[in-house]
Amino acid sequence: MTPPIAKADVVLASNTALRALSRVGVWMADEHPLPGPPWPLNAFLLALMGIGPLLLGALVIQEVTPFFWFLLIADLVLLFAVASATFRTPALFIGVIIIWFALQRIVVALLAPDISADLVRLLLTYKEGFYLILVTVGAITVAVRHLRGERAIPALFAADVVAIAFLGWLAVVFISDPHTSTPELTYLRRFAAPLLLYAGGRLLIARKEQVVDSMRMFVAIAVGVAVFGLVERFILDISFWRDTVDATTFYGKQVESGLLPQNWTVIYRGVPDGIFIALPLQEPVRRLVSTYLEPTTLSGLLALALLLIVFVPDLAWNRGGPLLKSAIAAAIVALGIAAMATLSRGGLVTFVAATAFVLGLRWIRRPGWTVSVPLPFLLAPLLVLMGLGAAVTSFDNLPAAGTVRDALATRAVSGLSDEPASAGGPQPPSADSAGPLQEIGVHPPGSTADAASKHLRGLTSGLEEMLTKPLGRGLGATGNWSGTPGSTNESTLGVISAQLGITGFVLYCAFFVAVIAGLVAAAWNRSGIWSDIPLVLAGAMLGLFIVSCVSESASGILGNAFYLLFAGWALSITSAVSDRLSLRVLPKLTGDSAASSADASLES
């Protein structure tokens, strides 16, 4: 038998542990506003304090060592504590995510010449700790608030059920293969990340001023990225990416570490071809890459920021006088030109598709001869610019193609000096050809129209493989990262269809349909900013889905993370929480007065 004194010690220890857990729960559920500067500056300070020591450690250690792993884990624990302490004001932690996602690539590129390839890979995948922290802290906070008696459980929508089902099917496919490979882990991460970001948004506390603050910061950071991009593209020479920022070493170490596929690109003009240089109408033209050092994900970021700043006037346009409106107009122009200069069809198509979707639904909602068009004097030129960019990068046969080609060939437009003359025979390999990336002296013939056809074939071949193998070929069996020759790549939907079969295809499509329908239902009977935001996000999600049909980059989260996060958060805003779990297909179609009452209850 246990002595009475020992029993008392056990009870005392148990009570002490329960009290400690209770105090932790109270601390997590309470609001902890930071003193001092305004919250955007606090977000920058948190990013500097939370991420800066890890980068400094990487520069000093230069290799992946046990000590660096200790620094990485300690850093993630610190970020977890920050997210927990500020979860009633989640705009702070979201701000840290926005800042790091915008600066990650250029920071790692500056470090790349001095650190190992494995460390480059680790720093680039470090971003995934942010959304895992977001989901974990969100789930814990909902549980703690529920145990404290708060109405904290959000309604479960059809999109949530489909997202859970997709993640479950992804886990089943992953577990069913006894041999885990690098491509398998890569695609597990790429397919799961968008759903986890959406889940993170759904678990955030539904405070509408926090959503608006986060979106304003997102747009401000995107404008900063666009302005830097315009400087590097139109003022700085391409030698900036060859000498100041060693882009070749940065991408070479990604290939060397396995983060990017082998033979993914070659070096032309001292920079990675296809990333820094494109061939619209068979003419080499320098692409705007800004801090992302990659135009495709960058264009996705710029497109979302442009949609928000144009179609949600209460976000910024209606908040100031003539001076502020002039600055906002300049920001819109900068975002539009930057998106066009990326020469990435993804962002251009997203903007055009989302614009048509938003204007079409506004007309259906209030049919008539006219439709409410915010900032028409800026929207019309943007649509023309985006349409022209999409056409030039997708087709070789255009009206006045010769004139356009001559314009592209000028240094003022192309950003490149004249190409060296070809000797007529095959080019000998350069001295650097033994490295991860080979270098060419003269660009071979080709065009972005050829690449567009390749992307489309990636979709069709993926659907054909799905019909051949309805259960799918397994994670990592196809796609750019698989290492397997074939045409089933360059399309997120095609790769999902081939790898996850009919089930994955149906769930992936159903997720986008459910999210778009939920956002439209949330916006339908509202007015003002809480009609504009869900409707714009619905259009953006439609554009993202269209791009995912013909681009494998759409499964990357660096530029597309905030489509999913803001969509989940907007759905949380439009549904009142309860003290028990409930299932709804769509958010309730409430009138403006009822919606205002619900919004007030969400903030309490």
Question: Which key terms come to mind for this protein?
Answer:
5 strands; single chain; globular; mainly alpha; two-stranded antiparallel sheet; disordered C terminus; 22 helices; 604 residues
Strand order of the largest sheet: 2-1-5
**Average predicted local confidence, pLDDT:** 84
Query: Which blocks of ≥5 consecutive residues have pLDDT under 50?
Result: 422-434, 591-604
Q: Over all CA atoms, what is the radius of gyration?
A: 25 Å
User: Number of helical runs?
Assistant: 22
Largest β-sheet summary: 3 strands, mixed
Beta-strand residue percentage: under 5%
Task: Tell me how many strands there are.
Answer: 5
Report, as a whole number of angstroms, the end-to-end distance. 52 Å
Element order, helices and strands? Answer: HHHHHHHHHHHEEEEHHHHHHEHHHHH
Share of helical residues: 55-70%
User: What best-fitting shape do the alpha-carbon axes yield?
Assistant: globular
* Oligomer class: single chain
Counting helices, strands and paired strands, the structural category is mainly alpha
Blueprint of the fold:
Elements: H1 4-29, H2 39-61, H3 66-85, H4 91-111, H5 117-125, H6 128-147, H7 158-176, H8 182-203, H9 208-234, H10 239-244, H11 247-257, E1 267-268, E2 271-272, E3 277-278, E4 285-286, H12 295-311, H13 322-341, H14 345-365, H15 376-394, H16 401-409, H17 411-414, E5 439-440, H18 448-468, H19 492-524, H20 529-550, H21 561-573, H22 592-603
Parallel strand pairs: 1-5
Antiparallel strand pairs: 1-2, 3-4
Helix pairs in contact: 2-3, 2-4, 3-6, 4-9, 5-11, 6-8, 7-8, 7-19, 8-21, 9-12, 9-13, 12-13, 12-14, 12-20, 13-15, 14-15, 14-20, 18-19, 19-20, 19-21, 20-21
